[in-house]
Amino acid sequence: MPIISDNILDPAIAGHERQQQDLLHALRTSRLGHAYLFSGQSGIGKRLVALALAKALVCEQPDDRAPCLRCRQCKMVESGVHPDVQVFSRDKSVYSAEYMRESVLDWAARTPREGKAKAGILLDVEFLANASANVFLKTLEEPPAGTYWFLLSGRSGHVLPTIRSRCLDVRFAPLKRDDVERLVRGPLKGAVETIASEREESSLGTDEREFLLDFAEGSPGRYMSLLREDMFAAFEIVRGAASAKPTPFDASEKILAHLSRAEDTTQEPLRERLHLLIDLLERDAHARDGGGSSDHFRKLHGSLDANANPKLVADMLVLHHCVMPREQQT
Ligand SMILES: [Zn+2]
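Above: the input record for the complex with zinc ion. Below: its predicted structure, written as tokens.
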């Protein structure tokens, strides 16, 4: 794939060429907005583009406004230690008002230490609720001179209108399957191997690799988290449930054992993994029945959200899998 490096912020970023070109163009023509909302599925590279733009803002030797990626400033951003480029993530289940005041606003009020500009990157801004957003709105709307905000969201439909209306929108599309494959075989290979080596079977089989690429939905980040959560094995347990001995309910015990982690202190992580497994099974079913069983999956998600016992949900999941395929074939 040809890369027109003149128009790209960072040639190492897979995909998002148009977004990079548009942002670089805005920078070159002095039309860069002071606040952006980057939306698009999580794990596809929004943060990388925001960081590349941050490098462009602070770079010592930019090439026609594109970052050199070699100078001290660029390298400090790359290693996450640049005082004027800060990535913020929610401190609790949501961003708290206290955190917005004491961390985000406090950082925004400081003059740039290195001099050129400041870039604040907020991850998952759909978790910015009203009270916390209100603390932030004025700074978002009228940031100190030379300060830029990049707000990122994987679920931009959930971002508050008060936040959204103060930002310029940049939408990011999922990567192509080939691009994800290239990344996990190239730059991410080491990380993949490290995760795989922490499991009993140390490498990925072809089936698992295909599964991960199929369900990554164009997101290298999702590929890595499916791998980290060992979802392929859980998926296989459900698929083999009909032949589980002595009963399918043994399969649901196995699923729960597989999805539980020694470090879990509450049921929440297990519930999250069950939600994820239900998503995967729904996608798989959808490919075969065109959405005919979506009510069933909605019920499963709903039961989990209503605090149903995870074992009960796993039973429902397994039972459906044992019964439904035959019904749907008629
Ligand atoms: Zn540089």
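Notes for the reader.
The beta strands are 35-39, 85-88, 118-122, 147-153, 168-171.
Residues 5-171 form a domain with the Rossmann fold fold (CATH 3.40.50.300).
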